[in-house]
Design brief:
- The protein has one helix and eleven strands; from the N terminus they run E-E-E-H-E-E-E-E-E-E-E-E.
- With 121 residues, the chain is mostly beta strands.
- The strands form two sheets. Strands 2, 4, 5, 6, 9, 10 and 11 form a seven-stranded mixed sheet that branches.
Length: 121
């Protein structure tokens, strides 16, 4: 499976929106679930959202109603649309492949390099 490559991070105002992209391969999308996780320095990595091979989506309670995970199979890309970003949500956001979506986001097979999201007051 191909290592996912994230992009789209940057600076956004408190309450603003940002869309992250995770480029991968057709094989990866056909056979694996794709998750987004985030990590603040000094804290544990936190699962944010996951999309299964057949397109089912799952979200952490903290982002439900604000974040949307989706995939475009024609572009072999998974997106994370983030709306109403909060001041406590700046972090490094990572795309990862898993055999299936899990509530604990454990069992990651491949990590991307991450993309940084900064939220200004």
């Amino acid at each position: 499976q191909a290592q996912p490559v994230e992009s789209g991070g940057g600076l956004v105002q408190n309450g603003g929106s940002l869309r992250l992209s995770c480029a991968t391969s057709k094989t990866t999308l056909d056979y694996y679930a794709i998750s987004w996780l985030r990590q603040v320095p000094g804290k544990e990595r936190e699962g944010v959202a996951c999309i299964s091979r057949d397109g089912k989506t799952y979200y952490a309670d903290s982002v439900k109603g604000r974040f949307t995970i989706s995939k475009d199979v024609s572009k072999n890309t998974v997106y994370l649309e983030m709306n109403n970003l909060k001041s406590d949500e700046p972090a490094d956001y990572y795309c990862a492949t898993q055999a299936e979506c899990r509530g604990d986001y454990a069992g990651v097979l491949t990590w991307g390099q991450g993309t940084q999201v900064t939220v200004s007051p």
